[in-house]
Fold each of these.
Amino acid sequence: MKLDLKNTGNKPTGKFSLGMFTLVICFLYMPLMILIVYSFNESRMMSWSGFSLRWYNSLFFESKNLWRSFGNSALIAVTSATISTIIGTLGAIGLYWYKFRFNKTIKVAAFVPMLIPEIIMGVSLLIFFAGIKLRLSLFTIFLAHTTFNIPFVLMVVMARLEEFDFSIVEAAYDLGAAELQTLTKVILPFAMPGIISGFLIAVTLSLEDFVITFFVSGPGSSTLPLHIFSMIRFGVSPVINALSVVMIAGTVVLAVLSRNVIKYMFQK
Amino acid sequence: MRKKYGPLYVTPLTVWLAAFFVIPISIIVYYSFLTKRPATGGVIHQFSLEAYTALINPLIFRIALNTFWVACVSTVIMIALAIPTAYYMARSKYKNFFLLLVIIPFLTNFLIRIYAWMAILGNNGILNNALASIGLIDSHIQFLYNVNAVILLTVYTYLPFAILPLYSTIEKFDFSLLEAARDLGATKLTAMLRILFPNIRAGITTAVLFTFIPAFGNYAIPQIIGDAGSYMLGNVIARELTVTRNWPLASSLSVVLTTLTTLGVLLFMRFNRSATEGAAAMAAAAKRRQGMRAAI
Amino acid sequence: MKGSLVTIKNVEKSFGGFRALKGVSLEIKKGEFYSLLGPSGCGKTTLLRIIAGFEEPSAGAVLLDGRDMVPIPANRRPVNTIFQTYALFPHLTVFENVAFPLRLKKLPNATVKDKVQQFLELVKLPNEGKKLPAQLSGGQKQRVAIARALINEPSVLLLDEPLSALDAKLRQHMLIELDTIHDKIGITFIYVTHDQQEALSVSDRVAVMNEGEIVQIGTPFEIYESPTSPFVAHFIGETNYIIGAVTRLIDEVRVEIEFPEIGAVVAYRDKPLSVGDSVKMTIRPEKIRISTELPEGLSEKFNVLSGNVDEVIYSGFQSKFFVRMGERTMFRVFKQHVRYFMDEKAINWKDQVYIWWHYNDSFIVEVGET
């Protein structure tokens, strides 16, 4: 009965919330839509003068540095996401599964990096790398990204493990599984959606980070966000419009794709 | 049996975070009490409170005030927009689609989103071009490079941070309570204020924290579309670190920024009398938000 | 209409393409304990929500004391609701929950305090005011919900399956209590339920609903004893149906029907019938007597049949017998155990038995074509 009502168009919300929702969606999308439209503009200026694909041409064939930065970003995203996923998953299993001293302390402390302002992490890492005389390079960016990614992976995997019915592990023990077997045959397969989510989050965060990367990058180690930053400092450029469209499209495709992949692989 | 390997699993995590988080943060605190190396920058290992006394300075004070102003105003705007939006989403049949709709701009690169507004509001941007073409203005209007532009962009960038935790709290709210309140004589507005709001307080707390912290630690937005008058503490830290190379001062500023953020958070949570509740909801919402982000 | 407090006139409600209510009309008298009874999805809750003001009817009128209620929002109707899930405000204490309507009216503190205390006493919770809803048991939550709904002194109290979240024992108990409260304060109760026991035991009148329509309105006695349709007969209590053909109209009140596998049976005649009509007859299982021996000296007003016991279900105070009359005909018979061991000879599985009932208890619920 209740469900019937819910699904049959009972109007629970008023005009005000609908208005605000519409306003917010327009606010969020209007700038992106404008970028999309103007990426096809013939003119260099932000006034319409005719349809053209020239900026896409210049994005794909005349922007070597941009693509080199993108390569760096992708490399760092994949490596830092992999390492942080391994560390975060092990940590989540350890913290969730085993009770030992400092368990609670570590649990709380591991989430602090998520809560402090980004710039603090960037500054502290820069000073730290300078202190240990580590030259700023792609490697320092990798270290920084892995550091801010770990808490996110940890959180997502722990969230998944919390849904776990512990009696399953007891059943595994009862059926004669050794600890290692329990881990590989029971716990890891169960945690897999969380692990994949964690990995994807780490990739996204890494691809997107600007502030921390800005501090820990050295000469010749530009990433895509750093490259975009240097471009937009010189003002509006139609190549950035085109790049934006490619990135927005990439985001949407990846978003929908990874959702469907996860749905398909782990249908509940 | 469950004790044996526990610490082993946690070792990489602990070591990594100790090395690249705890130690660097400790170094900042340590550096903030050292002396600046005069010519080349960096530090001399000699105790000094200079970096802190240098903070007592009208310029820094003005910037700190501006930082608070920007963070508070944008947080208030975000919460005001996010509550009705999240409410609408949570009660809609299409909530999953709407969630995706809110998350997509949020996943779009941060700098691209700033750039989009530059294309609109810049001196040669769409708005100026449009106004000029209908003859309303002769020369362009400077929309960017002021504190209002910084607030606008902060709201634009972090709004989903407010919507998502509020959404997940409101979605769990028992809407029949609103009907009960109406039934007992409350107007729609009273029902919202006296029944909905107290019951989603945890979500509001989370949303405030998630928006206030990044807004307060803002660096990139004022750097790109702000001017000297809209500089925030983050910009001063970056300048002292990379331009003036006064590392003790950059460190003391970082310590102050972190302390102020933490204090603000604690104060708010205390004021809100739901510290534990809020923290729990924050964890839950964050989990959900991240889960959502990944799931999408 | 004179004497009626709530008048529902041809109320229609559609959700999208689904017609939840198909022209419902009701008259509810002042002070009545009125039940809307029906299976889930029959529209009873929708009707209640329309009376409360949570839904607008697609067509039709809702009058309260002669006043049209449709344009009046829920918060200004002199009607209060007890929700299925109680809908207690989790952030407010029991006291503040009950005080909520008074706080909205900004009554002085002392008045609020007295009145809330008075209503907490009415629901027998005088000392739980400081607790939060989460600290209460299901029955206590129910009581708080009652007190809160009554404190505004509404002229009508709407109850939406209020007992469905309680366990069976508590349900019995709360039902009696609701009845007591109704007697004490004397306002109109409109009670929505799918449980016929609940509806029959406390209501003054019952409206049985099915698929968005009212199928029968009457006192519990009328509804049970003389259902006007197979749906009501089937939905209220248990019953036996058999389909046969009218062979003889004996007199004004009696009709003879021929059933396959059974033979001729006399039934009560309360509708126009003619010979040859195909009819559906109903007889309640508890109206049928059963024994292994044919009792002597039965009056001709009784129908007597014989069959074999197919199944016996013993449940303490009674036994249920499934008596097979033929290939396709089976009778359910309930026998109350007054003193089990003193009863006549025990009836067992496969026994040949006689069953009989007064013709008055069997009647026709449906007349079909020949």
Amino acid sequence: MTATPEATEATPTIVLVGHGMVGQRFLEALAARGLTATHRVVVLCEEPRPAYDRVALTSYFSGRTPEELSMTDMEFINDHGIELYVGDPAETVDRAARTVTAKSGKVFAYDTLVLATGSYPFVPPVPNKDAEGCFVYRTIEDLLAIEEYAKTKATTGAVVGGGLLGLEAAGALKGLGLTSHIVEFAPRLMPVQVDEGGGAALLRTIEEMGLTVHTGVGTQEIVVDEAGAVTGMKLSDGSELATDLVVFSAGVRPRDQLARDCGLTVGERGGITVDEQCRTVADPHVFAIGECALAADGRVYGLVAPGYEQAETAAATIAQDESAFTGADLSTKLKLLGVDVASFGDAHGATEDCLDVVYSDSRAGLYKKLVIGRDGTLLGGILVGDAEAYGTLKAFTGSVPPVSPESLVLPAGAGESVQLGPTALPDDAIICSCNNVRKGTIRGAVTEHNCTTVPEVKKCTKAGTTCGSCVKVLGQLVTAELEASGVEVDKGLCGCFAQTREELYEIVLALRINTYQDLLDRYGRDGARGGDGCEVCKPAVASIIASLAPTIGASGYVLDGEQAALQDSNDHFLANLQKNGSYSVVPRIPGGEITPEGLITIGEIARDFGLYTKITGGQRIDMFGARVEQLPLIWMRLVDAGFESGHAYGKALRTVKSCVGSTWCRYGVQDSVRMAIDLELRYRGLRSPHKLKSAVSGCARECAEAQSKDFGVIATTNGWNLYVGGNGGATPRHADLLAQDLSDAELIRLIDRFLMFYIRTADRLERTSTWLERIPGGLDHIRDVVVEDSLGICEELESLMAAHVANYADEWATTINNPDKLARFVSFVNAPDTPDPVVGFVPERDQVKPDLPLLSIGMRPAEDLLEGSAQR
Amino acid sequence: MTLAPETTDLKVQLQLADGWFTVCDLSALLPGRGVAALLPDGRQVALFRDRAGELYAIDNRDPFGGAAVLSRGLTGTHRGRPFVASPLLKQRFDLRTGECLDDESVRVATYGVRAR
């Protein structure tokens, strides 16, 4: 990318200063309007990386990498010919000459200049505010610096400011293992969003998490040692707080210096003054959008949604379309330190003569307030601790809800509580405020654009693609719309069962049905009863029966009786079928820990049977090329040496990978190998809707890649963090943090519940990652169920797992001691000693590989065969 | 290794060009699962027995992948047609006609089979 000022003579140039979320949205709006084709577009970005999701900044500490936070698709930038200069901020603007000079010295002529410079953190002017150990919380670079300092030089941290960002910062410090304090000048936390009652509910919950909150006090001075590093803070009540690290998070100010320097009008309290088209009042060639702009309604908006609207307005105006930004809703729904906090509309009851409806339960950390007009109109509200109703309530704001307001804030089960569905909303109700998508548009996506799933609707309408808080409402709307348009979605498992896998699980468990035939004959579809079932439901039901075996009185051995006929081919032979009809064998190596003797045994077996060996991604050894009749012989030797089935063939727990942990590693903080072995031995043999992978890392460096697993564990100085729903494979997904700083027992109890809840409710062949994204309420719901026990089923989940653990037996050991079962392990029923002639091998890199031409020929001359001469 | 001890006198027989070829005891066939048999001319046959006791025999070779593994597939019924799903890539084959339910242009050989 090089600057080519000459080009401006032919094509008009738009220069965008600032590449944050709003800047990126502006570029997308330009492209959508075709302006990138008719204009040269230059972007000057100060930060060393292009636009990223600043709203989700804190998720860096729960494992999202800077790359994952990125909102910039370089293909988009390149495809639209956008010149993006990263790490090169604009230094001066010459409005007379219409040029911008960047820090690098490059000069860009513009026809239109768009300022999207955002804001900067306000640091109160206290002595030593710039001392070593003082930080702000705004950019990825700030976070990296805080992380580094916290790990090497601090045990205690204090955040100045108890607002939204302050609480996020405090949560981050706690996550880094620091003893954390919050110092807020106002008498309550989050003074802008919540009132006194909401602040009290929030305070209680946050203090219970182990954070110390100081409200009603200001910071007077940062105390430093001789070397100039922070040691504490002097507070306005005369007390002193000892701390090694201070994060200033006391609000932000518009970044308007560039505008001031070139003579643009700015507001008294900052912000570049613009009109309803986001054009600066002083210069029609210059626009300002986002947090640096003082909008026509006299406000500076510090939220991303209004910034997006301004970006759209500016792009529309440049395209000479009509558009105006006249003000925006300040509603927000956040999850701070795991606490739901939402405020919407006239949250503080500023409207004349308005009334409050309040429900408060400080014991449970709940506070809900609705502000109602004299005529019953819902004007706004505050929700703390439970913001489930946010989407619906916000959409009703400005109208008279169809039910009494008190019924909307009472908790479920408390008499009058009413769950008001989004179907009751008018079509012009805004469902997604980040992207300004109305209910009518979402309905249209289903009825006119044939979307049938939430991901399709998200793609079609952009709803739910920014903060995600409306996704639940989105799901309800899509389902309602599909049902209304008469789309009968057959949710049945297959042609044999009209029930879902989850429903079948409930039937099997409740009625203790322990054979497939019984289930099919009693609960199958009419035409399927008494029949043979199919390849879809047989393994699915076999899996349910196996998961629940001890509880429903079925055999825990998957080849016992009828179960043998139901298993997928691999489970039936307890090995993995390969392309030429041979099998691979994977013994369990818990946690990836193996003795030299174990390695030698595996090596000897592989050598004696001529097997190809390879190390798997799950820290085990895979042996390929075993003929079906060799499997029992191989396993007799493996079982003798103390190995067990690794279940590489099953929809079951595969491996629990580990790093070497605190025993050897200089960085390890917990014994990850021991924990991995414990977990692998606990859950081995557990049949589930799909395979399960796990890993345990001994420190935050995460060498075991636990965040790509169905359940991953990462050590902290205080215990273990549990992540769930991760996946590698074709659609990788980082796992979500379910709970932090758990003891060994807490960790195991939570995994027990999580796995059993997954087994109970997932679809067939649905990995935890897709399950977590599919089920209504997502991670929050799962957390409610398995952490808070909101359904009251945790005791049952734990006892089901306890039964599994108590009844585990190695299925290969059982098989080699059962002559009837061993008889199945032959290539030919009428020639048990003859190997399959199609299974042949040729050498490659000192090992063997399948003889593929043999497959295409299919068979050899008959005479060779019955002699059994087709040896490898 | 030997086969399971006899529990019945009935034998499974395949119809070949030169008459009926005895393969194994009927008891070796588990309802819902298959076994493979080797013919004197080197061909391989997959034999199945369904829940009602009916017997089926088709060529053992999966025409898509080439491996002789159809006997190891899962069986079922699709719209009244008994089938086996290949354990390689899951294509289903009609046990009566040999026709592939997922690709009409593909068919495997079938054999007459009886128990006596």
